[in-house]
Amino acid sequence: MQATIALLPGDGIGPEVVAEGVEVLKAVAERYGHSFSFSEGLIGGCAIDAHGTALPEATVEICQAADAVLLGAVGGPKWDDPKAKVRPEQGLLGIRKTLGLYANLRPVAVTPALASRSPLRPDLVEGVDMLVVRELTGGIYFGEKTSFYIRPDEEQAVDTCVYTTSEIERVVRRACELARGRRGKVTSVDKANVLETSRLWRRVASRVVAEEFPDIQLEHILVDACAMHLLRRPADFDVIVTENMFGDILTDEASMLAGSLGLLPSASLGKGKAGLYEPIHGSAPDIAGKGVANPLATILSVALLLRYSLGLNAEAEAVEKAVYATIDAGILTGDLAPAGQARSTKEVGAAVLERLG
Ligand code: NAI
Ligand code: MG
Q: Of 228, 258, 288, which marks where a domain is finished?
């Protein structure tokens, strides 16, 4: 197949890890007879330096014309002035909004080699294979915000949590479709004992599953209980679907099951096929430019890109297998390797390519 992939390497280690992702895409194209073309844009701090904005119009156009977007990371101390009007993360929020990306997917899989390095007991995390689907464009993060003085000595701040039926339906549908390709189980997480938006969420989720996905096993759990069960019985989860803020918190918790930020990919999907794929970690300024960053989260993001935007499932699985084989072979960057045995970003990238049979 032919596809155009927009590359937004961004700041810090972003360019180093995206370079390894591109090598994997080129290898997949060659081995499976596809033709991928790449177009590169600036986002985040580097875009601010060049154009005075974190999301230049040219970058938006490159993304809109592409079949998928691969992003590194944005930000760093150089642009960290909290009072600055132009900030790197505006690039990220802006591109998600422009592309209408309402579902954020974060898979967490723990192989035996990773289980032995998890902060949790290996027997608890071994076999974990879950996919968290977080609603990305609604809820309290996007509701109306105000703060004002109700008395000269008393300030009040208000955040508003808003969800509509259709916003809930589309993300629950997405989660159910994804579950069909997995173990067929969806856990919907809310706080329906307290929040009105959660009561709506639960009603809508129940109806969508009953009407459209009778083959899916749906369970509802409260977010506080979910936080506990993620540590107590993480291997029981298949697909978790939840609203924006709960998802933000639970995905960080779930990410630690696998042990390192440097391993976890994400996909953000919308109406169209063109999704945005990025590692969940940031620009890691402390290690940027040294060639030691873990490229596996980005390479696993490439696998998600192949699967969800290009529909290339066999290719996606081959990339994932090559990554896990690299981990099992102990070819690891410093975030995971025992002292003195760390390999460079490029060495780990090359080890994945070698195993991409
Ligand atoms: P971070 O994820 O960049 O780094 C946290 C720690 O993990 C650091 O010690 C870093 O060296 C390590 N780390 C991260 N990715 C790694 C990798 N691939 N391989 C090995 N080690 C890795 O988060 P931090 O330090 O809070 O933020 C740094 C900058 O990144 C800030 O400017 C922040 O705003 C930005 N950021 C950007 C994100 C994005 O672009 N999506 C997400 C999170 C933070
Ligand atoms: Mg977060």
A: 258
